[in-house]
Amino acid sequence: MKREGLISKLFRQGHEKREQEEQAQKQAEEEARRQAAEAEARRQAAEAEARRQAAEAEARRQAAEADLRRRAAEAAGIRQEAEAEARRQEAEAGARRQAAEAEAQRQAAAEEALRRQGAGPYEVAAPGIAAAAEALRKTAETQPQAQRRVYVVKTGDSLSVIAKNQLGDAKRWPEIYELNKAIIGSNPNLIRPGQEFVLPEK
């Protein structure tokens, strides 16, 4: 009986030991699975964070490229505007230069014509001015002496200076010349201080 009880006791102990070992193994397996799950979760979280950071970096890169394109477009627009403005100014300068050259040629031709005729530059008058001045002269001659506008020539005067100061327009000098041709003579450039000129109406 003692032997059978000892065998039964040993059997129970062996069974309990196996149960403990199985339980420990199960716990170890569960712990391993838990750790594996946590590791997988950490890996997925790390991958998600890496994707997020990559997406943010890509967004920043695209924004930087868009900003560079915008600035390049603005710079190109400013450059084109500057080039257009430069061309416009160059065209205006060319037009002014051509006009100045044409005016210089016209004046040179007029002076050459006057030189050949032996007359001063005041001999050239615009068409119709001489006739208008002659009519003014006749009108002035018919006016009473008290109503006539008289100007006394001063040192440094010229017909254009007198016209500018008294009539407000230097180009009206032929009117003064035609009214006072008898006093001035054939050369309107030769006027002397002290001469009295009849002036046309303003």
Characterize the structure shown:
- By secondary structure, the protein is mainly α.
- It has a domain at 120-199: Roll (Membrane-bound Lytic Murein Transglycosylase D, Chain A), CATH 3.10.350.
- Helices cover 74% and strands 4% of the residues.
- The chain contains five helices and two strands, in the order ααβαααβ.
- The chain has helices at residues 2-117, 129-142, 159-167, 173-179, 181-184; strands at residues 149-152, 196-199.
- Strands 1-2 form a two-stranded antiparallel ribbon.
- The longest helix has 116 residues, at 2-117.
- The chain is rod-shaped, with a radius of gyration of 57 Å.
- Mean pLDDT is 79; it is low at 117-130.
Helix content: over 70%
Largest pleated sheet:
2 strands, antiparallel
- Taking all residues together, what is the mean pLDDT? 79
**Could you give the order of strands across the largest sheet?**
1-2
What is the global morphology? rod-shaped
Instruction: Figure out the total of helices.
Output: 5
Number of DSSP E strands: 2
**Beta-strand residue percentage:** under 5%
- The CATH class label of the domain at 120-199 is Alpha Beta
Derived structural class: mainly alpha
Radius of gyration: 57 Å
Give the CATH topology of the domain at 120-199: Membrane-bound Lytic Murein Transglycosylase D, Chain A
Residue ranges: pLDDT <50 for 5 or more in a row?
A: 117-130
SSE succession: HHEHHHE
Under the CATH scheme, the architecture of the domain at 120-199 is: Roll
Q: How far is the N terminus from the C terminus?
A: 162 Å
